[in-house]
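Mods, move this if it's the wrong board.
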Amino acid sequence: MRTTIDLPQKLVEEAMKVSHQRTKTAVIVAALEDFVRKSRIQGLKKFRGQVDLDIDLDTLRKRS
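Not the wrong board. Structure tokens:
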């Protein structure tokens, strides 16, 4: 998708250096992917402590 946005030049340049990306587009894509990944992890953290741990892994793995 093509779009026009105004970004701080120094911030983009620093992001390119620390991420080792060669293009501005690659930096933005990497940042968006990281943002989505972190958001999904936050969503999973809501379930902490709510999973039933009474599971027999040997039975699930069909071990005797």
